[in-house]
Structures are given as structure tokens and as C-alpha cells.
Specification:
alpha+beta
């Protein structure tokens, strides 16, 4: 079964999806970007992220990916997701999942 693809900008993602992305990419995501052609045939740089229901392509350039990590207080100066942030985000995701059950 093919999952629906969602192409979005990082800034427009829900807090829950951002938390899941941070946990999946605790060492940043600049090196995880892929290239794809959009419906207009333009080459786009994006971060792939998959949930149980959707396949996300989160538009960003390498520069933007690097800036996101640099400006995010959850990441250390070395560009790694801090242990405190990992614990907090895991708990946040667990609580939001409990809300749907």
C-alpha cells in the first residue's frame, strides 16, 4: 500500500511531527536530505519522514537544515539533540498518542 505523500515546509508542521522528526534525526538532518522533482519538474531538496499514515517530504535546503539545528535550543552546540530534549519529546509524543487511544 502506498502512503499519501505530503510536501510541506518545516515551519508549517505540527509540534507533534516536529518532535517525531527531532527524535528520528537526533544528529541533525542536513546530511539526510534527498532531491526530488515536484509536479512542475523543478528539483527540490527535502527531508524524508514517514509515519504510519503518511510519507512526508519536508522542503528545505542544506543551509536551512543547518540553520534550523543551530537556532533550535533542543540541540547542543555540536548539533546533537540533548538528552533532556529527547526525554521531553518522547514523553510529549507518548502523551499525545494517549489522547487518541
Amino acid at each position: 500500500m502506498n502512503k499519501p505523500r505530503i510536501i510541506k515546509d518545516y515551519e508549517k508542521l505540527s509540534e507533534e511531527i516536529v518532535a517525531k522528526i527531532k527524535l528520528q534525526y537526533p544528529h541533525g538532518f542536513e546530511k539526510k536530505l534527498i532531491l526530488f522533482k515536484n509536479s512542475k519538474g523543478q528539483l527540490i531538496s527535502a527531508l524524508p519522514f514517514e509515519t504510519t499514515d503518511y510519507y512526508y517530504l519536508i522542503r528545505m535546503t542544506r543551509k536551512e537544515a543547518s540553520e534550523i539545528i543551530e537556532q533550535d535550543e533542543d540541540y547542543t552546540d555540536e548539533g546533537y539533540l540533548s538528552i533532556d530534549a529527547q526525554e521531553r519529546l518522547s514523553e510529549q509524543i507518548s502523551e499525545s498518542t494517549d489522547d487518541y487511544e
